[in-house]
Write a structure and sequence with these properties.
By secondary structure, the protein is of the alpha+beta class. Helices cover 30% and strands 12% of the residues. Helix 2 crosses helix 6. The radius of gyration is 47 Å and the shape is elongated.
């Protein structure tokens, strides 16, 4: 067989295909001990962000609390112009004094100074703004409510109020009993007093004439206790702020 000068054709051998072993590999991972996850190293905080020890914070707060002095409570508006008050009760356990202000009979609660001697009912004490002038009172706690007073204070309140008004008998004689008139077509101002009706009020007007010379003359001629009746009316107005007309607003403060 002639070659005609050409190389004979020899077919190349094809490489054997490698079998895909992935088909025979299990789909689940190989069983065995799983590698443990290593904890991440905690990054160091910035020096400014590091917390202080709790004990140091507590000691700082304790030091701060002990170094700050307690502030005096704000003075109630009703007591802005008041300088004196009359004791109703002094609670030695709490150091609280319940009192009535002198000018407008405002019930108030006062904090007594340390080692203060017991203040008896009707004692006149200073409640002014100048601390150097106050002997028994450290500061004003606030206003007092009559319906929340103790049984002792409730019992003493009428007596203290009567003592306060008795010191100004002449003023109330000239400002009320000698000048009181009708407050309506059918009602006289005397009828605002407890137990005084229209008939009794007209008898008092007739007995007054041109004016009573004294409280004693008023009491004798009208068979009443004028200052006691007035103090009872004041007490009713203190208990009921809606009671009208208010003699407290009309007659107080006492003008010398």
């Amino acid at each position: 067989m002639s070659n005609d000068g050409k190389r004979p054709f020899v077919p190349k051998k094809q490489p054997k295909k490698q079998e895909d072993t992935s088909r025979f590999m299990p789909s689940r991972p190989a069983e065995g001990r799983m590698p443990q996850r290593q904890p991440k190293a905690q990054q160091s905080r910035h020096p400014r962000q590091e917390r202080r020890p709790q004990s140091s914070n507590r000691s700082f707060r304790e030091h701060r609390n002990t170094s700050v002095k307690p502030q005096e409570s704000k003075r109630p508006k009703q007591l802005e112009s008041e300088t004196w008050a009359y004791v109703v009760e002094h609670d030695l356990d709490s150091g609280i004094i319940t009192a009535l202000s002198e000018q407008m009979l405002t019930p108030c609660r006062l904090k007594a100074v340390k080692d203060c001697e017991p203040c008896p009912p009707s004692k006149r004490i200073n409640i002014g703004k100048r601390a150097v002038d106050r002997e028994e009172v450290q500061h004003i706690v606030g206003l007092a409510r009559i319906d929340r007073m103790s049984s002792f204070a409730t019992m003493q309140l009428p007596h203290v109020l009567l003592d306060m008004l008795s010191k100004h008998e002449l003023y109330f004689l000239e400002s009320f009993f000698n000048v009181a008139t009708n407050i309506s077509l059918k009602m006289h101002a005397f009828e605002l007093l407890p137990t005084i009706g229209n008939k009794k009020a007209m008898q008092m007007v007739d007995a007054r004439g041109r004016g009573f010379e004294s409280i004693e003359a008023l009491n004798e001629q009208c068979n009443i206790h004028a200052i006691e009746l007035l103090s009872q009316r004041f007490l009713e107005e203190l208990k009921d702020q809606d009671l009208q007309p208010r003699l407290i607003s009309l007659l107080l403060p006492v003008k010398s």
